[in-house]
């Protein structure tokens, strides 16, 4: 079967929102009297897992709901005022994929409304994606493979014929466990050898994916 289905992660892969997360998290924690730890990593986690991660890190008295509300407000203000930075090569890659009739999908740990908002903020037509799936629809987030397995099921594509573009360790592991073809484009997550062994391919930017597909 021709490998023409590609599933995109979003944060850190399509948009430079992981560095924005660090910036907003640092400020919001400071406002609540907590110290931001640069090694504290929630990349790839869905909202429920992220909440648990904060409580485990800062203790059972951590005001997670108030923090989340303040964090979301701070994040939204920055996006409204400054916009969202698109990752290098994204627009060129999307243009290439649409022109060459690839089937596109998004599988992000972020909630569905925010995914659509980010696309709107960056003037990317959501209709080029046949499917948009949020991690909020699953009990277990990445590295559990459910989100990618569901994508393949709904796209009616075999996982072994489906490329997954990811920037994080948890995302690559989830794609690998799903039996997909993981492609790693690192962002700020520290990638270890275990993750690199699970990734079928690794590129420095989304631009390199275009070259790879042309030569495939």
Protein architecture, described:
The structure is a single chain. Helices cover 47% and strands 12% of the residues. It has helices spanning 18-31, 47-58, 64-82, 90-99, 112-121, 146-155, 169-178, 193-198, 206-215, and strands spanning 5-8, 103-108, 131-134, 162-166, 181-184, 201-202. α5 (112-121) links the parallel β2 and β3 (131-134). The model has no long low-confidence stretch (mean pLDDT 93).
Please describe the topology of this protein.
Elements: E1 5-8, H1 18-31, H2 47-58, H3 64-82, H4 90-99, E2 103-108, H5 112-121, E3 131-134, H6 146-155, E4 162-166, H7 169-178, E5 181-184, H8 193-198, E6 201-202, H9 206-215
Parallel strand pairs: 1-2, 1-4, 2-3, 4-5, 5-6
Helix pairs in contact: 1-3, 4-9
**Text of the CATH class of the largest domain:** Alpha Beta
CATH architecture descriptor text of the largest domain: 3-Layer(aba) Sandwich
Count of extended strands: 6
Average pLDDT level: 93
Low-confidence stretches: none
Order of helices and strands: EHHHHEHEHEHEHEH
End-to-end distance, in Å?
13 Å
* Rg over C-alpha atoms, rounded to the nearest angstrom: 17 Å
The tally of structural domains comes to 2
Q: What would you give as the CATH superfamily of the largest domain?
A: HAD superfamily/HAD-like
Keywords summarizing the entry:
216 residues; alpha/beta; Rossmann fold; 2 domains; six-stranded parallel β-sheet; 9 helices; globular
């Amino acid at each position: 079967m021709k490998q023409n289905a590609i599933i995109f992660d979003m944060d850190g892969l399509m948009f430079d929102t992981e560095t924005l997360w660090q910036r907003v998290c640092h400020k919001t924690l400071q406002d609540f009297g907590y110290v931001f730890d640069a090694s504290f990593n929630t990349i790839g986690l869905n909202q429920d897992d992220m909440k648990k991660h904060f409580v485990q890190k800062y203790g059972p008295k951590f005001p997670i709901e108030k923090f989340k509300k303040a964090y979301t407000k701070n994040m939204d203000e920055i996006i409204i005022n400054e916009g969202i930075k698109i990752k290098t090569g994204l627009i060129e890659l999307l243009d290439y994929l649409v022109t060459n009739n690839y089937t596109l999908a998004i599988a992000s740990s972020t909630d569905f409304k925010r995914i659509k908002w980010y696309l709107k903020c960056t003037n990317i037509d959501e209709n080029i994606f046949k499917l948009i799936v949020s991690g909020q629809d699953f009990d277990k987030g990445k590295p559990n493979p459910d989100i990618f397995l569901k994508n393949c099921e709904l796209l009616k594509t075999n996982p072994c014929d489906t490329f997954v573009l990811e920037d994080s360790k948890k995302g690559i592991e989830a794609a690998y466990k799903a039996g997909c073809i993981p492609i790693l484009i690192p962002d700020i997550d520290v990638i270890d050898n275990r993750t690199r062994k699970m990734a079928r391919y690794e590129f420095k930017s989304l631009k390199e994916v275009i070259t790879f597909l042309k030569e495939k």
